[in-house]
């Protein structure tokens, strides 16, 4: 191996495969470095290490590093439930906020064409997306998360009359928008397991799915249907989240379990999937969500349970 070849081999480890093969001409080494997703400090540290190593290669007097941000393909996480009203949209919004805090670049698509709620949850109801080269440009939200929902595109209630294929096309436009540097797209799925859900999963191939259920037996039976939709389409299930578990009385502090307890964890174990955590039924969660201020964005106790779920999802994403 020449000195240049051995430097090129070392470069792979040094940059985790982000550098092109180095070329040397007239004493100048040139290479391209993909810095997409790196912090400024990490980018500078990698570039310094490359320079230092390159100048040790005989004949190299100067180093030119062209920094690029190669677009990584976006990973979709579908958040789904077998039935409506179990808190799927609430979990999607807070999961996005919590993953962003963990350093991921996250976006949200509200795929609930018939009853979109993300614009309210993320306080972006007054935003209207622009289009460029026939692709939508996501709107920003106060939590710093780019997002798209039918609520940004149509008058409230208008989408209700759409038939399956029309709804499916509209959803594809949201998912195929210009998401820029976004790495993780949280897709808040419509409740249930109908045609729109199936064609979304087949067409956009989520990297994984998070299933939300309340602890009631009936909700869990429905959750199993959602799980089977993903299994049939070979989408890995990241795990199950139990929402609205254990109610803490704001007056006396006593914990009661209006929908039972432990059902989702037992169901996850039975189905051989990860249990991602339990979100309590808390007035604070509802009030903040309705006010467009996702609990996970603050430091209050109501956000903690969402952070615990996000930690597990982050571990799955990194594994
Ligand atoms: N853990 C919780 N504690 C208190 N209220 C909650 C909790 N989770 C959700 N809610 C409230 O329950 C209602 C339904 O939640 P959400 O809209 O997230 O459900 P969903 O499953 O997305 O419903 P759908 O998709 O059928 O519209 C909302 O008012 C929300 O604020």
Automatic annotation (TrEMBL):
A molecular function GO annotation: metal ion binding
Binding positions for ATP per the UniProt entry: 82-89
InterPro entries per record: Mrp/NBP35_ATP-bd, NUBPL-like, P-loop_NTPase, YlxH/NBP35
A GO BP annotation: iron-sulfur cluster assembly
Keyword Hydrolase in record: yes
Keyword vocabulary terms for this entry: ATP-binding, Hydrolase, Iron, Iron-sulfur, Metal-binding, Nucleotide-binding
Transmembrane segments: none
CDD domains assigned: Mrp_NBP35
Family membership noted in the UniProt record: Belongs to the Mrp/NBP35 ATP-binding proteins family.
Function text: Binds and transfers iron-sulfur (Fe-S) clusters to target apoproteins. Can hydrolyze ATP.
Assembly: Homodimer.
Record-given protein name: Iron-sulfur cluster carrier protein
Lineage: Bacteria, Pseudomonadati, Pseudomonadota, Alphaproteobacteria, Sphingomonadales
């Amino acid at each position: 191996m020449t000195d240049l070849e051995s430097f090129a081999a070392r470069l792979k480890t040094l940059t985790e495969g982000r550098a092109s093969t180095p070329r040397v001409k007239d004493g100048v080494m040139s290479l391209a470095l993909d810095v997409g997703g790196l912090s400024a400090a990490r980018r500078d540290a990698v570039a310094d290490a490359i320079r230092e190593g390159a100048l040790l290669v005989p004949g190299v007097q100067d180093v030119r590093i062209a920094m690029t941000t190669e677009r990584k393909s976006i990973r979709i996480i579908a958040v789904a439930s077998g039935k409506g009203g179990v808190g799927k949209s609430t979990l999607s919004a807070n999961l996005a906020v919590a993953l962003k805090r963990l350093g991921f670049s996250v976006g949200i698509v509200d795929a609930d064409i018939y009853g979109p709620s993300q614009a309210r949850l993320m306080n972006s109801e007054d935003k209207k997306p622009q289009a460029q080269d026939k692709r939508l440009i996501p709107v920003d939200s106060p939590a710093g998360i780019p997002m798209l929902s039918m609520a940004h595109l149509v008058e409230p209630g208008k989408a209700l009359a759409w038939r399956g294929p029309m709804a499916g096309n509209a959803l594809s436009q949201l998912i195929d928008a210009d998401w820029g540097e976004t790495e993780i797209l949280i897709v808040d799925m419509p409740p249930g397991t109908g045609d729109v859900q199936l064609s979304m999963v087949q067409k956009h191939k989520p990297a994984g799915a998070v299933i939300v259920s309340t602890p009631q037996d009936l909700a869990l039976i429905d959750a199993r249907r959602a799980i089977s939709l993903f299994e049939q389409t070979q989408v890995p299930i990241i795990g199950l989240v139990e929402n609205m578990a254990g109610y803490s009385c704001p007056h006396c502090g006593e914990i009661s379990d209006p929908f039972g307890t432990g059902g989702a964890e037992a169901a996850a174990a039975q189905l051989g999937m990860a249990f991602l955590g339990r979100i309590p039924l808390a007035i604070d969660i509802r009030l903040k969500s309705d006010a467009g201020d996702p609990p996970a964005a603050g430091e209050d106790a109501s956000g903690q349970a969402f952070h615990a779920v996000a930690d597990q999802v982050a571990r799955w994403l990194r594994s």
